Amino acid sequence: MKYFVRAALLAASAVPALASAQSEDARNFGAREFVQQISLSPDGTQVAMIQPMPGHGAGLVVANVQTGASKVVLTASGEPDQLTSCRWASSTRIVCNIYIIEQLDQKLAFTRMVSLNADGSDLKLLSKRGSATALDIVQSGGDIIDWGPDGSNGSVLMTSMSVPEYSTGTHLANTREGMGVELVDATTLKRRSVELPRGGASEYISDGHGNVRVLGVAETRGTGMSTGRYTYSYRTSDSREWKKLGELVADGVGGYAGFNPYAVDRDANIVYGFDGKDGRMALYSIALDGNLTRKLVFAHPQVDVDGLIRIGRQRRVVGVSYATDKRNTEFFDPELQKLRTALGKALPGKPLVTFVDATADEKKLLLFAGGDTDPGTYYLYDKTSRQLAEVMPLRPGLAKTSLSPMRAVTFPAADGTAIPGYLTLPPGSDGKNLPAIVMPHGGPGSRDEWGFDWLAQFYAVRGFAVLQPNFRGSTGYGDAWFQKNGFQSWRTAIGDVNDGGRWLVAQGIAAPDKLAIVGWSYGGYAALQSPALDPDLFKAIVAIAPVTDLEALRKEALGFTNYDMVSKFIGSGPHVKEGSPAQNPQKIKAPVLMFHGDQDLNVGVGESRLMASKLRGAGKSVELVEFKGLDHQLDDDRARTQMLDKSDGFLRTALKLPARP
């Protein structure tokens, strides 16, 4: 194996050195993934990679897989334009999605799609252009749902939004409204309507060969607010008539009831989707021949089945995935199962193998392989020659850093329930009497999984034991485990988080006076809310982009069509105030450090500002670091490095630990 992308590519977008006072560990872990997204050309001769540029910018790099020659063909500054994905429309043409946050009456997110040649020339706007007479704004620039009918070579099937236009004095104004589908030539921009705009349309699913087979329509009230009910329709292969497939209904606390369609298999004439079985998600198929014959494809008795494995230009379904202690994959395709087994032997220490992309004939596969102590590497596999070539490591800056194994553990909650989680100890540690961190995940509709985690590994390298609990309120373990989400059921969720800290102490892993809590998003909320149940447990609190006030979170959704759903998710009653850290600052004894981007649309920076103000008013120790121009992910090398370095120093001071370079 060898790199076929030249080392010069590394230098092309290297991040300038940061302040020398910051630790080398903070710089290495704060650097973003060197490959943020990657795709393989249909003929297999080139890869297109989004790579970080200095600050929070990114560049599209196209590299020849034979010669290694590479070129930056498109850049985005991150102020405000961000490159989020790029894929090949043909072997010479690339389509990219641009994400932008703009301040109008309020901060709004916009997306637009562009196309360009592989050498960077002929850059064009692929999204439908807006009209000066439009009566509303269009936030979405569309999504690619299919890489074109067979033989189209360069045309894409994409959604497009239409809004009515001012019509006085003209008969040419558009009067249609809603989402439709167009077939667009990515080079000439020639467009043809495939599905007329339809009010309420929320999703179109194609068969991978240019035919739209499933339609989802969101129900709304007269005010335009979504009710959380979606009606799905389908077409038989020989008709344009829509027939009812089923309904998907939000339960109000974060889950859904009903069949949720994901992908159509043209040859089998079925649609795959997820639905509940015995309180957990399972994969089903439904025949699209008019009979709607439903079959259980795969279920697991302990966890939700939550992932489809898809491959190739047609995105055909080849397997299913689910997470127990580790992410597992069941392939329907015997050839891929055999290949997956062989790769496991060829790539020791990298058991997490994902098929990322493929050539048009699927004779070459782009894949990713990694593990807990290996951030991962992209490879190209040639089925004909059976050769595996290394494309690019995800985090080359960590190549010389010793990382620690992530071990699946369980610990008892106060009521005896066994709580699963992951424990990472410092490299070379005996695992006894350590400074320790409990790190609850974000969401709350999420869960932690086994594999490389840059935040947990950073703190482990700095000498901390790190426990990541999948508390009740996490997804992946079924309806009963999710309860009423981590806000409405905060006492259970936060209780489990705190019990994780007590377990670390009881096991002798954590020194009782050197226990801290660190979290991002909902994890930051959990960190700030933990003192509500036990103010003496954690001696330091670090919260990144945290929710701090549930009523404030509800108000952030005002004016958006999902307001009613957000409001139901938060709920009403005493838990709204009792479960809001900013409403109970007097319960916090430990010093608090918070970080937040001022362009965060997930959780507004006002929540951290409110929390800081409340804590200062209560005479508590608090510091808030704001990052200008950054959103929820703090997708910036300098910001992440500063966050890591400052939080490490803060924890050492609060826990009375010696300084480390």
TrEMBL record:
Sorted alphabetically, which keywords does the UniProt record give?
Aminopeptidase, Hydrolase, Protease, Signal
* Signal peptide limits: 1-19
Highest taxon, organism lineage? Bacteria
Keyword Hydrolase among record annotations: yes
Give an example GO biological process.
proteolysis
Keyword Ligase listed? The answer is no
Q: Per the database record, which ranges form the Peptidase S9 prolyl oligopeptidase catalytic domain?
A: 450-656
Q: Which GO terms describe its molecular function?
A: aminopeptidase activity; serine-type endopeptidase activity
One short Pfam family name for this protein?
Peptidase_S9
What protein does this entry describe? Dipeptidyl aminopeptidase/acylaminoacyl peptidase
Source species taxonomy? Bacteria, Pseudomonadati, Pseudomonadota, Alphaproteobacteria, Sphingomonadales
